[in-house]
Automatic annotation (TrEMBL):
Organism: Komarekiella delphini-convector SJRDD-AB1
Binding-site list for substrate: 128, 222, 252, 337
Amidohydrolase-related domain ranges (all copies): 90-440
InterPro entries hit by this protein: Amidohydro-rel, Deaminase_MtaD/DadD, Metal-dep_hydrolase_composite, Metal_Hydrolase, MTA/SAH_deaminase
Catalytic reaction(s) noted: S-methyl-5'-thioadenosine + H2O + H(+) = S-methyl-5'-thioinosine + NH4(+); S-adenosyl-L-homocysteine + H2O + H(+) = S-inosyl-L-homocysteine + NH4(+)
Entry EC no(s): 3.5.4.28, 3.5.4.31
Keyword Hydrolase among record annotations: yes
Keywords carried by this UniProt record: Hydrolase, Metal-binding, Zinc
Parts of the chain that traverse the membrane: none
Cofactor(s) the protein requires to work: Zn(2+)
Protein's job: Catalyzes the deamination of 5-methylthioadenosine and S-adenosyl-L-homocysteine into 5-methylthioinosine and S-inosyl-L-homocysteine, respectively. Is also able to deaminate adenosine.
Name assigned to this protein: 5-methylthioadenosine/S-adenosylhomocysteine deaminase
Residues annotated as binding Zn(2+): 99, 101, 249, 337
CDD domains recorded: ATZ_TRZ_like
């Protein structure tokens, strides 16, 4: 006769300490199996309960974070198929680029030192009409993904054309994105005007909603000065009907403010409010020229704002009142805009500029502290995009969208405050590893999901065609 003994162990916790919402398992039954463990000298969580863990680590399973704690506790409780050590590194949430026109990397440097209206009407719109097709978007999107992965961006918003092509590239490269076709009232690449462009945008939303967990389709009327009131209403109704985000350029220049005032006897933000357009699913790019009542209105309506300091400066659009918007409680993220007006998709530039320019414009060195700016580039951006339930922080239950940043280069020595270094000293070349949804896209600066030589070759070929044929207006 065989006798089986079943032993049950009861563990009672007194004074349990939880670090960064850790689900650290103290069971004596053995280690839990996970897919990936990532450790670093510092884990910057963007979690107020435990913002920085020294000698920290996280465990990842099924693309999500299942534990955050010290390295000793994680290694004692979890067994991983793969472990990424992090000596001389900081582990942090991936950067969130809240506004870009990704394929426009192929127009990088095509037209510089121009006012926005001149740049758009006489250079960019003609170039797009002549060169933007599916191949242009495919190659441009691949080049943009390469650049963003190298710089530690894990989520981006793409407001451009040929959305199906862009989505396919994002699916292949492994990034997370909100993708939308820009709808405008006059002809654009592949479209005669608003009706067919908007119809294509809605069709894309219907086909891609819930199709891929890393890709969110959205609606994108270009701007109040390029889209009629009736079409703006049509756009927000569609976004509400299909329950998707909506993004728009808003109050970017003084010229726009004057134009909307003359047409509709209202400022741009008030114009959208009058149309019943503003709600929490909306996130607006730039918002350089809101007045104080408009700032209060954006906060009241829960509208997200994406600050693009590089392009605002390069196009001389002005200085967005970020300190006032933060004080009002507006959800604010950061963006690069397109590389045709930036000229890089480098979020570290946006981080540093945001920390510096608002100190200068307000004459207050405390106006936008380093911690606030880093939050805008991660969790704040996720909140503005409506994605904070998925990304933006290192927290149990969120998607494992993470980066490791090296701290051993001379411009990062000595180290007193890791957040200070990330904002004021680090740059894109310091990013060592990029992980999205638990998948490693880059490790030790080696790209793992894109064909670099093919992208370089095809981008150069398109650029040669542009050089040979494009003659901008004077």
């Amino acid at each position: 006769m065989l006798v089986f003994f079943v032993c049950t162990t009861f563990v009672v916790f007194f004074g349990q300490i939880v670090i960064a919402q850790s689900n650290y398992n103290l069971s004596t039954q053995g280690k839990q199996n996970v897919q990936l463990i990532v450790s670093s000298d510092f884990v910057v969580t963007m979690n107020e309960a435990q913002p920085v863990i020294t000698n920290g680590a996280i465990a990842i399973k099924d693309g999500k974070i299942v534990a955050v704690d010290t390295q000793d506790k994680i290694m004692a409780s979890y067994r991983a198929k793969r472990t990424l050590p992090g000596k001389d590194m900081v582990l942090m949430p991936g950067l969130v680029n809240g506004h870009s026109h990704s394929a426009m990397v192929l127009f990088r440097g095509l037209a510089d030192d121009l006012a926005l209206e001149d740049w758009l009407q006489n250079y960019i719109f003609p170039a797009e009409a002549k060169f933007v097709d599916e191949n242009f978007v495919r190659v441009g999107e691949q080049l943009a993904c390469w650049e963003m992965i190298r710089g530690g961006t894990t989520t981006f918003v793409d407001m451009y054309f040929k959305s199906d092509v862009a989505a396919k590239v994002v699916d292949e490269c492994g990034l997370r994105a909100i993708i939308t076709g820009s709808s405008i009232d006059f002809p654009s690449p592949g479209f005669k005007g608003w009706d067919d462009a908007f119809a294509a945008s809605v069709d894309f939303v219907k086909r891609w909603k819930d199709k891929n967990p890393r890709i969110t389709p959205a609606i994108a009327p270009h701007a109040p000065y390029t889209v009629s009131p009736e079409h703006l209403v049509q756009a927000i109704r569609a976004a509400r009907h299909y329950d998707v985000p909506l993004t728009i350029h808003l109050a970017e220049t003084q010229t726009e403010v004057r134009d909307i005032q003359q047409r509709y006897n209202a400022t741009p933000v008030q114009h959208l409010e009058n149309l019943g357009f503003l709600d929490p699913r909306v996130f607006a790019a730039h918002v350089v020229w809101p007045n104080s009542s408009e700032i209060a209105l954006l906060a009241k309506r829960g509208v997200g704002v994406i600050h693009n300091p590089d392009s605002n400066l390069k196009l001389a659009s002005g200085f967005a009142p970020i300190p006032a918007m933060l004080k009002a409680g507006i959800k604010i993220g950061l963006g690069t805009d397109g590389a045709a007006s930036n000229n890089v998709l480098d979020m570290w530039n946006a981080i540093r500029l945001t920390a510096l320019i608002h100190k200068g414009t307000t004459l207050d060195p405390t106006a936008v502290p380093a911690k606030t700016v880093l939050r805008m580039a991660t969790l704040g951006g996720a909140e503005a995009l409506g994605l904070s339930d998925k990304i933006g922080a290192i927290k149990v239950g969120l998607q494992a969208d993470l980066i490791q940043v090296h701290l051993k280069e001379p411009h990062l020595l000595p180290l007193y405050d890791v957040i200070s270094h990330l904002v004021y000293a680090a740059d894109a070349q310091d990013v060592d590893t990029v992980i999205v949804n638990g998948q490693v896209l880059m490790h030790k600066r080696e790209m793992l999901t894109v064909d670099l030589e093919r992208i370089r070759r095809e981008a150069s070929s398109i650029a040669e065609n542009i050089k040979a044929e494009f003659r901008p207006s004077n």
